[in-house]
Structures are given as C-alpha cells and as structure tokens.
Amino acid sequence: MASSFLPGEPERPVVKTEIPGPASKEYITKLTQVFDTRSLNMLADYTKSVGNYIVDPDGNALLDVYAQIASIPVGYNNPVLRKAAESPEMVTALINRPALGNFPSHDWADVLETGILKVAPKGLNQVFTGMAGSDANETAYKAAFMWRRQRDRGGPAVEFTEEEMESSMLNKSPGASELSILSFKTAFHGRLFGTLSTTRSKPIHKLDIPAFDWPHATFPQLKYPLEEHAEENAKAEADSLAEVEHLIKNYHVPPAAVIVEPIQSEGGDNHASPAFFRGLRALTKKHGVLLIVDEVQTGVGATGKFWAHEHWDLPEPPDMVTFSKKAQTAGFYYGDPTLRPNKPYRQFNTWMGDPARALLFRAIIEEIQRHDLVANTARVGDYLFGKLEGLAKKYPGQFDNLRGKGQGTFIAFDNPKRDEFLKKAKKFGVNIGGSGASAVRLRPMLIFEKHHADILVEALEKVVSS
Amino acid sequence: MASSFLPGEPERPVVKTEIPGPASKEYITKLTQVFDTRSLNMLADYTKSVGNYIVDPDGNALLDVYAQIASIPVGYNNPVLRKAAESPEMVTALINRPALGNFPSHDWADVLETGILKVAPKGLNQVFTGMAGSDANETAYKAAFMWRRQRDRGGPAVEFTEEEMESSMLNKSPGASELSILSFKTAFHGRLFGTLSTTRSKPIHKLDIPAFDWPHATFPQLKYPLEEHAEENAKAEADSLAEVEHLIKNYHVPPAAVIVEPIQSEGGDNHASPAFFRGLRALTKKHGVLLIVDEVQTGVGATGKFWAHEHWDLPEPPDMVTFSKKAQTAGFYYGDPTLRPNKPYRQFNTWMGDPARALLFRAIIEEIQRHDLVANTARVGDYLFGKLEGLAKKYPGQFDNLRGKGQGTFIAFDNPKRDEFLKKAKKFGVNIGGSGASAVRLRPMLIFEKHHADILVEALEKVVSS
C-alpha cells in the first residue's frame, strides 16, 4: 500500500546495494575534496526521493524515519510544496530578498498572518523571524536580556547611562550585562556561542569553544515503564525544580530566562511530565524569570499536537517559543509587548529571516491542515507505540526505556549497540537516527501512516533478530 | 537612458507622494501589529521593483543605492535570477532541504564547484557553508578555536583528556578554551553572541547583552584627502599594528584569530591601506594567529574586485574569508586542511547552509561574469568618485572625508546632518543608507552605470542646495 497523502511512493523499501553503493561512493569521493564529509550518513538523490522514502544514487529507497534530522514535515517532493515553490510569489521572494527590518514588502504582514502566525502558540501573537534554530534561540536570549535589564532599570523610558554605553563597547559590565540563561543537563539548543553555552549534550559539541559561565540544572531522569516508577519519577522532577529554584536564587550570574525543550531531543529523548513543566512555569513566574520553550525539534506536529507544550495544559503561556526545522524557517513567538526592546535597532540584523522560507511554511501549514496531519500523527504514533511495546516484550534488552507514549511518533528507545543497530537498519530498508548515548530516535514525517509503521516494525525486528 | 543590463527600468526616479505615502501607511499600520516596524525605512513592492529601482506601493520609484543593506547584487527582478529561481533544480532544492552534513544531495559537489567555489579567493579552495553573515563569522571563530587548541595540544591525533571533556560540559576551562578573537574598534561582524563580542560599532548594538572578555585594537583613523596626510596616516597604521601585536602578545585571553573588514562598513566606511593589511598578515603569521577577513559587506564585486582583499596584493592568503549579503548565501572559505577539526560533528549543524541559496549565488556569478560587472563597477566607481570630488569642492563641509577612491562604488562621505540628508534624498528620488556616526554610504548594485551615477549626483546636489 502506498501513501494516502502523496502519490508515487514505493510500496516498500528497496535495497539494491551496500550503502553507500558504487555510484554514491563516486560522488562522495568528489565531494570530500571541497566539503567535510566525515559526518555524512548517506548520499541522496532528492529528485527521486518521494514522500516517506529517501532515494540514493544507487537506486536504494529507504523508509526515512530520520527525515533530515526531524526537519522534513510533509514528505519529499510534496506536490503542494512544489506548487508553492513554483508560484510567482516564491520566485519574487527568492530573487528580491529584502532586509526585512528596513524594507519589508507590502505583503509581509499578510504572509505572516496566513502562515507563521496562523499557527502561533496560544497567547503568543507576535513573532521575530530568523534563519535557523540556533539563531531563533540566540535572538530569544537577547530579547530576554534586554527585557530583564529594562525591568531592573525601571522601564522602557529610562535612558541608558553614560557608564553603560561606554562599558558596553568594552564588553564589560554594566553595559554588557552579567546575566545568564539557565538550561538543563543533556539539553541541546544550538551551536553558536550563546546557544552552545546552554547546550549540554556531548563534549564533542563543546570542546575548545569559549563559553559563558551560565548555570544548568539536572533534567529529571525518568525511569520506564513510567507506571512502575511513579514515585521515584515524581521525586526526580521535584528535585529538578528545587535545583532550578536554587540556581535562580543563588547562581552568581543571575538567570534572565530558563530555556527548556519539551522533550530533550539531541540529548537522548528525555521526557518529563506535564506537571514538571507546569511547575517550571510557576517557578519562573514567581521569580520574574522568563520561560523560553525550545520547540525547534518538537514543534510542527510530530508529538501529536502542533506544539508539544500544548500537552502541558499551562495556565499561562511560555514567554517565548522558538521554532525551526519542520517549519523550514525560524524565529521566536512572544506575546508580551515589553519583549520588543525599548528602541529600534536593538534586535535587528540584515535579513531577519527569509520570506521565501516563510512562504514555504505557509504551504506546509496548508498541507497539514488539509489532511489533518497532526491528528494523523497522534493516531499513527499510538499504533506504532503499541507495536513497539510488543517488540520490547519479545526482545528484552533491545528496546529499553521505550518512551514517547501519547507523544505522536516522537518515540525512542535505548539499544546497547545503538550505532550498529542504526547501520543494520539501512540493510533492512530503514533510515533511522540516534541521539544521546544510546537512544534510537524515531522522527517520521507527519505523513507517516499505519502501513509505514508496519514496515518499520518489521525492519526493527529483523535488526534485532538477524 | 535605461539600464544596459536589465530591461524595464524607469528612465529616472519617480516621486509621487510623501514617503511613506497613503498606501504604504496602511500596510505599515497592519504590519506593526505583529512585527516590530520601528526600524522600517520604507515599504517596498518587490513585484514592481526593477534593476536599480525600488518601487513602493504608492508608485514611488527610487534609485536604490542602499540595495537592502548592500545585499542585492544584480538588480531587482533580474531575469537571469528569475530563470534560476524557476528552474526544476531550485524547486527540488526548496522543497527537499537536506541536512547537508548528513545527507547531501548527489550533486552538491557540482553545485559548489560551479558556484560558491568558482569564485573562491585565491589560495582558499574549501568552504564551510552557512546561513548568514553572523553565522559565517561564528563558524569561522569556532574553526579558529579548534585549530589553535589542536595545535597547542600537539596535533589532530592527540585525544582530549578526561578533564577537558568534563570541564567542557561545565562551560569551564580547559574544555571550554580561554581564548579570544581580536577585532578592531568600530568593527561590525554580526550580532549573535560570539560575533557581537567582536562587534564594536555602537552601544545600541551591544547594550545589555553578555559579552566575552575579548580584546580590540584601534583601527587606523585615516585623514582625507589621503595625499595631504600621508605621514600622519602611515603613523596611525603603524600604531594600530603595534597595538595588535601588543594585544596578541599580552592580552590575558590570548587571541586565536584576528578578524578584520577590508573596509569597516557599518562602522562608517573606515579604510586602511593595502600596506596596513599586508602588515596585519605578516604579524598574525609571525605569532601563529589566524587572520579572518570578513568580506560579508565588501565581497562580491562592489569594490571593483570580486573580493576586496584582492586590492592588497598579499604574499599569502588570509586563513579564512567569510561571505554573505550579495552572495545571498553565506559561509567561510579556507585552504589549510587543519582548519577542518580533527573529528566529525565538531563543526556541524542541521542545515549547514541552504542549497537553494547556493543555486542563486551560482546564477549571480553567471550574471556577473556575463556582463563583466566587477569591471563595470570599478569603472563607474571611478566616474562617480570624480563627480563627487567636484561636489565636495563646490559644497564645502557637505561631502567631508570623501573616501573609497579606486574601490569601485564602495564610496562614502560625512555630512554634519546625515540623518536629515538621507531623508531628503528620498524626496529627490534616491534611497541611500548611512553608517557610523555621520557617514553617508553608497552601496549601489553591480549593475549601476554612469547614467545612474549622473542621476545620483544630481540628487545629492539638490539635497545640499535645497
């Protein structure tokens, strides 16, 4: 059975050669001369890839549940996206790229309102647009620092002092603030200098790069199955919140904001309960610290809600929500007007995003709504999770700490020989990614259906039983 | 006379209304509700803009010598770019965006070699691709830090110590290195956390944002006309180089690299002589410090060379050259293979650039070469400079410190009432930008011709004489 949403998918994976095969190897040899290919996973021919299937130059077609590090939303060569890409609007946007802060196009408000803002998280009706996830988080951090200093200064009307202006030019306090962003252990928020200071994934991401003296708290390490460890897990979450509060009150570089992922993704798919996040919202509110929710990987439907933080039933929204990846553009949503700094040109850069990519997100949203793909993902995720529970019982030790129940297809498990597991999966026709130390993370697209889940489960079984 | 390079340009500017006119005002009111418009300069209708002319929704058509903060290379709605934007290759690239480090497309080497690398600066045959100027500079900084630590550690084969790995996760030395990037006063290199620490343009760009304790040296402040101040200027440059050397040897956070713009652009169009830059290359080489040339604003033809540092006649190339803006994509060029870090995933992110924008740069390069637009810019720049010298003589005090001779159309002057000057220019049909405290900076596109220069000069004369 092929896809219900997209024409032209193969019925099943096709594995014709070793991966990389001879044609791929030739291309890789050429590419290595000018581009670092040591992190290359597989080469792709995107003209031939379709729907849930990534196709390589040797004619191998793999069911892709990695999806460009969770960034392809509605399938390769989706015809609705193709139509948007071929539209006169897109062509104009591509060849006349504006400096959005200075010279926005007359229809920019319309593009925002029918696209990026149409899916704005509840309570957040403003957006600052950017280029990619790191950029979205860094501009959110900047907004947090300016907001906090403005509050402490006595409001937007209070002018900067001479001392502040002079010391800022020397990278010194008080002009350069001595404030921090609090993040969590095993978090990933990006790899530029500000975001990397909040990223705590792996040494290889951080080694040799100067970092800010910013605090981090322990993220609750839940035990699975959840129902057998309710008490311990509640304690882990309470301890984490207590640590956050302690750091907010005592860290020598005070946090202006706490940033958290709804599910720590690069860090190994670490979950916490809605109660934990409600606690975090209450705590940050109590201490006048902003809460930034990093939905770069969790956003745009994969957890069975458009935004993963909708699972939490928060009494008040986060202060900022950052997005990228499946949105194919980036930025941060906010609601409080005081998060716009008190003067122009404080939060500014040349491009401030990309209208072409904003048009693409608009088409993605249309496609998601047309097929109700968020509901599809919730439904297929439940189905897949059930099947994986079966596998976990059948193959003890191979699908450890199965997690992501009720979180759409945002599912992971641990395997003791994870890297080998991922390699083997290719032989059985499936492209899967890993994260953290031992997690196999599933990141299907939103057009992933039950029959794709069946193919995946069959392949996973072959991987552990072969 | 209309453009020789592009069909459809108006003969002259058209100013029908105040700017913003009634139609623009309506759009702006709507946009302000969801997007910060306080830095808005003018609204544009890009469907109607053409060549050197930016058109607004009220039908005003201004000769655009600001060009989206120097980022439009070959004119609005350039037909060659349109063709590239409509090509099947572009559509595929737009709708199937890869994680380039993991899953590059089979033709990525070809896209690089026929595009970005076709214009690689002499001696630099490798590229790391990125999204925008800030990103290009930050990844270049990361390369510098990893390179330096690797050298000090004893080479790529030396493994990280346990202490380095553990301390890196705590943002502490030795894992997080205590090294710096040395930049210059009045430099601008971007506004993310690492680049902002090297940016020394204005307090409004830096206030409230935490910064690294990195050093900066005085950029030579040349006096004009150059021929009347040869001795003083040579001394200013010698002093600057001595300060750089002193900081390299003594700053308590040692520099891994020096970053410099060929012409400090946002900082007010501050120039230095080729001898200064040759001195800087010699000095950095002598002390084992990398030299990064930031060509984000100067690159891609505007100075009458493809890269501005070609004016310097360097005996050895810079270690890295960063680019963006007119390239419509971004990244850094390098040559030394040891600038690829010793392990994969150290210099990595999800998208690592954008093949769609790489295709656009390829088309830009084709268009530049087809019409020999770099030579055109050199020629028209000389013509324009001569005319401006005439104006400067005729209107003393209005075109102070006229600079950029022999640097294509990359020309600037100071005006005591700069902001008013720029506003008035719109009334006379010209869109111009400022920089630094009092500079009027000219940033025409590469398709700017003599008759455009005549229109510009005529308008400038009206501005100062009205």
Features:
homodimer, 466 residues, alpha/beta, Aspartate Aminotransferase, domain 2, seven-stranded mixed beta sheet, four-stranded antiparallel beta sheet, 15 helices, 14 strands, 12% strand, globular
Structural description of this entry:
The structure is a homodimer of 466-residue chains. In chain A, 38% of the residues lie in helices and 12% in strands. The first copy, chain A, has 466 residues and is an alpha/beta fold. Among the domains of chain A are: 89-369, Type I PLP-dependent aspartate aminotransferase-like (Major domain) (Aspartate Aminotransferase, domain 2, 3-Layer(aba) Sandwich), CATH 3.40.640.10; 372-415, no CATH class. Chain A has a 7-stranded mixed β-sheet, sandwiched between helices. In chain A, strands 10-11-14-13 form a 4-stranded antiparallel β-sheet, covered by helices on one side. Chains A and B meet through α1, α3, α4, α5 and β3 of A and α1, α3, α4, α5 and β3 of B.
Sequence-ordered SSE layout with sheet pairings:
2 copies of one chain form a homodimer.
Chain A: H1 22-32, E1 53-55, E2 61-64, H2 67-70, H3 79-86, H4 88-95, H5 108-113, E3 126-130, H6 133-153, H7 162-169, E4 180-184, H8 193-198, H9 203-206, E5 216-217, H10 230-250, E6 255-260, H11 274-286, E7 290-294, E8 320-323, E9 330-334, H12 355-371, H13 373-394, E10 400-403, E11 411-414, H14 418-427, E12 430-431, E13 433-435, E14 439-442, H15 450-465
Parallel strand pairs in A: 2-12, 4-5, 4-6, 6-7, 7-8
Antiparallel strand pairs in A: 1-2, 3-9, 8-9, 10-11, 11-14, 13-14
